[in-house]
Amino acid sequence: RNALAAATACLAAGVSLPAVQAGLSAFRALKGRLQRRAAVRGAVLLDDTYNANPDSVRAAIDVLAATIGRSVLVLGDMGEIGEMSAQFHDEIGGYAKSQGIDRLFTLGDASALAAHNFGSGGEHHGSVDKLIEAVLAELGPETTVLVKGSRFTRMERVADALALPSVARSN
Question: What percent of the chain has pLDDT over 70?
C-alpha cells in the first residue's frame, strides 16, 4: 500500500509514469524488514528480523497467513514489552493458530509460551542450531517461512541459515 500511495502522489505531482515505474523497480527492501528472500528447498523466506513487538508480530503473521501453501512462523522473544511479556507471548501463539499458520517454531524463554498456546504444530527450541535443523526439515517448494524476533535474539542467524546464498547483482 505504501508503494501505491507513493506512486499516486508522484503521478499527481506530475512525475511521468515511466519514471515512477523505474523508481519502483529500483526499490530494494531493507534487510530484516519483511524482506522476501529465496530459501532452501524452493521455499520462500520472509525475513522480518529487524525487531519485534506485539503489533508488528501480528501484522507479520497477517502477511504470512495471506500466502499460498504451507506457512511456518519462526519467532524469537519480543523484548522491551514489560510486565505483560508473558501475556503478549502467550497471545501471539493463539493468534498465529487462529490465522491458520501451519507450524510455529520458537526460540527464547518467553516465546516458549507462544509455542505452548499454539498447541499442535508448535515447537520450542533451546538453541539456534536445533531450531534451524527443525525448520529446515519443514521447508519445501510450497512453503513460506516468516522469521521474526527482537534484535537481542539475533534471529537473522536463522534467516541467513534458511536463505539461499544471494547472488551479487551487476549494474
Answer: 90
Q: What is the pLDDT of residues 5-22, one digit of tens each?
A: 887 888 899 988 888 788
127: burial class by Cβ within 10 Å (0-12, 13-18, 19+)?
A: exposed
Angle between helices 85-98 and 54-65 (to 10 degrees): 10
C-alpha cell at 40: 532452501
Q: Which SS3 state, helix, strand or coil, does residue 35 take?
A: strand
Residue 29's pLDDT band (boundaries 50, 70, 90)? low
- The residues, ordered by sequence, that sit 6+ positions from 123 with a Cβ below 8 Å of its Cβ are 103, 104, 105, 106, 115, 134
The CATH fold assigned to 31-162 is: Protein-Tyrosine Phosphatase; Chain A (3.90.190)
The x, y and z cell numbers of residue 34, run together, are 519483511
CA-CA distance, 92 to 30, in Å (whole number)? 25
Q: pLDDT by residue (tens digit) across 91-128?
A: 999 999 999 999 999 999 999 999 999 999 999 999 99
Q: Quick count: other Cβ atoms within 10 Å of Cβ 102? A: 16
